[in-house]
């Protein structure tokens, strides 16, 4: 009996020992299994998040692409008409001051919107100029070369050479942004260039200085569009930050330039500042200048710099038609007013003669 109890107790202790050993061996295995389950669950969650990010980073809707392109073309067209009225009808002496007013309007609107938390862009720090470079330099080069080339070439030749902005934009997008275009798009771009040459074939006057300036203008315009697309990355400045800081960095040098050339003095001495209609159109030009800058960035954001360049070329044709309609309507108005005055004077003279004869 005692031997049986001893053997049973020994067997129980042995079984307990073996059970504990099995539990100790199963412990690490269970922990490893739980770790593998946690890792697989985490991997699935990470894959889900990555899938969500990929879905959110998909291509923009076609409606946004089309509307942003139409918005850009419409803003540019309206701005040209308003500026034409200011510079010709009222004979405002300085287009540079109009540009300064547009930059000031951009800074004010974006800053007030940021204060009211309508939009967001990073606060200024020492890294902002580095992040923005070389956009301010490209803007200055684009402005100077554009003014110089316009005065040295005829309008048809200027229109032809400005079309080279489109293939340069395509090339710079491939080099800087690493974007690849299909053969159909490349053929379409060169078809635009060929059509422009055919349209201006009767006015191929050679002017080396004008050619140099307009090709520099093409390079600056294409580079400005491509780098603007690059700087609009939310990790960098975003589209509002690009607009705000570019205007901030450019308004002071442009103001100094206008003061040195005498444009600022001529603008301050202009005699129409008390004219309410002139003030309304001047403020409208400043607001449309902000809309043009914003619509350019928006079009490049939803589409591409190449699309923005093509829309600019189409807008240039519409602009010429709009200016022609403006000049035609204004000329017709002046002629009608002149004829009305002549008829009124003739009728008044005839009335005086009739009264004299009756007397």
From TrEMBL:
Keywords: Membrane, Transmembrane, Transmembrane helix. InterPro entries: Sugar_P_trans_dom, TPT_transporter. The chain crosses the membrane at residues 66-86, 92-112, 181-199, 211-228, 240-258, 278-299. It is a multi-pass membrane protein. Residues 1-33 are annotated as: Disordered. One of its GO terms (cellular component) is membrane. Residues 1-10 have a biased composition (Basic and acidic residues). Residues 68-315 form the Sugar phosphate transporter domain. It is found in: Membrane. Pfam families: TPT. PANTHER family: SOLUTE CARRIER FAMILY 35 (PTHR11132). This is Solute carrier family 35 member D2. It comes from Equus asinus (Donkey). The gene is SLC35D2.
